Amino acid sequence: MGAATSESLQGTGYVQHEYVATGTATSYRAVGGLPGDGRWTFVPDTTAAYRTRVLIRRPASPARFSGTVVVEWLNVSGGVDADPEYASLREELLRQGDVWVGVSAQKIGVSGGPVLVSVPGTSSVTGKGLVAIAPARYGSLVHPGDGYSFDMYTQVARAIRAGGPAMGGLKPTRVLAAGESQSAIALTTYINGVQPLTHAFDGFFVHSRASVPLPLVGPGQYADLSSAITGLKPTILRTDTDVPTLDIQAESDVTGVLDSVAARQPDTSRFRLWEVAGTSHADVHLLGSTTSSIDCGVPINNGPMHLVAKGALAALVTWVRTGTTPPVAPRLEVTSGSSPHVQRDGDGIALGGIRTPPVDVPVEVLSGVPGPNPALLCLLLGSTTPLPAARIAALYPSRSLYLQRYAADSTRTIRAGFVLAADRPALLAFADPSKVPA
Fold first, then answer.
1. Counting C-beta atoms within 10 Å of the first and last residue's C-beta, which end of the chain has fewer, N or C?
2. What is the pLDDT of residue 289?
3. What φ, ψ does residue 70 adopt, rounded to 5°?
4. What is the C-alpha separation between 198 and 190, in angstroms, rounded?
5. 43 has which bridge partners?
6. How far apart are CA 115 and CA 112, in angstroms?
């Protein structure tokens, strides 16, 4: 698994098992194109055999199981299967007793292929695929191409819903689809074209999508995300879905490379959009120990995006379980015109959007604006810039006042429903009184 921190479930009451998922998958073709309203018509096209990898992390005791399963479409932008959604949601999944399932849905993760984003220290595995990385373990895997990924994902979800040995006898009540970045872009295609045919998921957690979908491709082909971003038209998520969708976007997603502002849409009884000020597509939390080896010309974003993501997941589960809709979030304020950008205050902090204490009680500027390094990875990592000492002194006459204001803003954020009460200690840990004059 391409993760900054290797997963250890020791002492958590969870177990991890790895399985082969095998079958015959169907590809799709679009009738009438891919209109921007998302109301696509897909029909089955060709079929092909597949053997792919599925990873399951679940409570060892059935008594701990919440009934919720989160099925993550593993991300391959770094040239290897990665689980960024799990990295963001881990604490909430484990404390609730949810099951997490990671699906090697795309060809690059299984068979290898082009690397979209190069991460330092990963060259020994990136672009090779599981088959080449560990042939003794994965040599039997076969991926017929990304056109079949959507049905492979559906088949895994259906097998999980049925319970059985892979689930240790656990029978899910709710099966949610989740994906971040390229995987969220794949979920755009799934929601608009596949879910109306399969009804395989009870809800969708879409995290940091672009304004465009993942394209349908022919047998043996990879989905070319770079060409999609530059060549496909923006599309919203269809508004006649039968299940809830929560779309959470970092500040850098909105007007940066992913340009999600071009696919903004109003909230409905089945859709919520959360845009989070002071956050970036990837950040210190997601990159972990690899942060020190990345030079973007400025320190990368160190915002609490993962804390809002956990709040979003909890809100989606409640929505699916009870019908109670999540809070409506203000949009980030952006300029009008052909090249919109996020509007900012005098300190350079984004206006609007979901606010958190590091943004509203700042000692540094958390931003989606990247540093000077033009590498694609750096364009996704935003920045963290200390406020001048004089500005901090003007904002906070004392450390105690700073901490008082920070704690009050933490309470406001939690009461608004954007961060969980269980994550209050983690939110308070972002405070840095050392930067305030004593």
1. C
2. 85
3. -105, 115
4. 10
5. 29
6. 9
- 58 contacts 65 by C-beta, under 8 angstroms: yes
* Architecture field, domain 14-356: 3-Layer(aba) Sandwich (3.40)
Dihedral sign, Cα of residue 95, residue 414, residue 351, residue 336: positive
In angstroms, the CA 367 to CA 292 distance is: 19
CA angle, residues 373, 252, 336, in degrees to nearest 5: 115
Query: Among candidates 73, 71, 70, which has minimal Cα distance to 93?
Result: 70
Domain ranges of the chain: 14-356
Q: 366: part of which helix (H) or strand (E)?
A: strand 364-367
Q: What is the pLDDT of residue 309?
A: 98
| CA nearest to 427, candidates 355, 370, 365 | 355
pLDDT mean across residues, the chain? 96
Closest CA to 241 of 322, 155, 320, 174: 320
User: Tokens in use for 350?
Assistant: 């984004």
What sign does the CA torsion over 57, 288, 311, 271 have? negative
Which pair of tokens denotes residue 297? Answer: 């010309």
What one-letter code names the amino acid at 220?
Answer: G
Residue 293, both tokens: 């080896």
Extract the residue ranges of the chain whose pLDDT is less than 70: 121
**CA dihedral angle for residue 105, residue 111, residue 117, residue 120, rounded to 10 degrees:** 120
What local confidence, expressed as pLDDT, does residue 382 receive? 97
Read off the amino acid at residue 212: V
Are 239 and 247 spatial neighbours (Cβ–Cβ below 8 Å)? no
pLDDT, residue 340, reads: 94
Q: How far is CA 31 from CA 4, 193, 322, in A?
A: 41, 10, 35
Rounded to two decimals, the pTM is 0.97
Cα-to-chain-centroid distance, residue 319: 19
> DSSP per residue over 68-118, as a string?
EEEEEE-B-TTSS-B-HHHHHHHHHHHHHT-EEEEE--SHHHHH----SS-
- Phi, psi at 186, each rounded to 5°: -65, -40
Q: How many CA atoms lie within 13 A of 291 on its CB side?
A: 18
Pair of tokens at residue 227: 């060409």
**Checking DSSP bridges between strand 174-180 and strand 99-103, what pairing results, if any?**
unpaired
Q: Which residues have CB under 8 Å from 138's CB, separation 6+?
A: 53, 110, 130, 131
Please state, in angstroms and rounded to a whole number, the distance separating the CA atoms of residues 49 and 145: 10
